[in-house]
């Protein structure tokens, strides 16, 4: 049965469901959800590109930052926990770089938290050493190292809200077709804004990622000492809730085309919402994580030396370097401005990280 039929029957039998629940089923239904399907999702034949798939240099730069984190933690046994490793490209390139650092690599433990059997199988085709897979961070002993996520939080199911006389939550109903209906928002959603001192204007529509807050609590509890490195597209709250985003940030991706129709191609397209990095910082502090710094991806990669790689390739004037040069430009400019990097830390004395030389205020 098509996922749209499953959702339709669920709504007819039990009444409207929150947009959060709709998105969760559309993306993560065990059988027909987007991320559990056999569909190719990432790369040329998929629905979108990610930075690790675009260029192996992205993983190399992340590897350089991880080496510095290892040094700051006293060159002790180091654990990397990567959430949602996609094709495994980032893991592969990080490990390839770290393999050149024998003292680190010999005592390295690389953990991937991946719930999708399809994605896990794809990762295992290229990752053959140092890597173990888990369903939850609760399965991993206390972590000394870095918890890493790249384009993961934007796929957490979100609540949609609209400010009217009071804050209203968007639910999904079915009468001849899927349609949005409003119900008064619950206390958790209202607290999300009040605790950040955010006041939405009337008719302002946006998304609330409560699952990201739960995630911050979970990873802080699992991290004994080290860093949390989060890379995703999104904004600080001052930018996220500006007037030009009064319709929200929800987007869908299919065949490298962007649309804003989540009720089409259910289970066959990606659904995303921009990340509120101020919220990650706010609740991170509450759960015991200090701010290391916040940056654009472009400035993060520049600080780690990607411009040197670009100059080297440009000086060689080889025909086969053109593709690599174009890839680096995309990492630094197009994707470099769109994606942000937040690093938080716990039980680390130094706050200096090379990747944050060009950091922005959060």
Structure at a glance:
Helix content is 37%, strand content 25%. With 362 residues, it is α/β, with parallel strands linked by helices. The protein has one domain: Rossmann fold (3-Layer(aba) Sandwich).
What does it look like?
The protein is of the alpha/beta class. The chain has one domain (3-351): 3-Layer(aba) Sandwich (Rossmann fold), CATH 3.40.50.12710. Helix content is 37%, strand content 25%. It contains 15 helices and 16 strands. It has helices at residues 3-14, 19-28, 51-54, 56-72, 89-98, 102-106, 117-124, 187-194, 210-222, 237-240, 277-286, 297-303, 306-316, 322-332, 334-338; strands at residues 17-18, 78-83, 108-113, 131-134, 143-150, 159-163, 167-174, 178-184, 205-208, 223-235, 251-254, 257-259, 270-272, 275-276, 290-296, 339-346. The strands form 3 sheets. Strands 2, 3, 4, 5, 10, 14, 15 and 16 form an 8-stranded mixed sheet that branches. Strands 1, 6, 7, 8 and 9 form a 5-stranded antiparallel sheet that branches. Strands 12-11-13 form a 3-stranded antiparallel sheet. A hairpin with a 2-residue loop joins strand 11 and strand 12. Helix 9 (210-222) crosses helix 11 (277-286) and helix 13 runs antiparallel to helix 14 (322-332). The protein is globular. The termini are far apart.
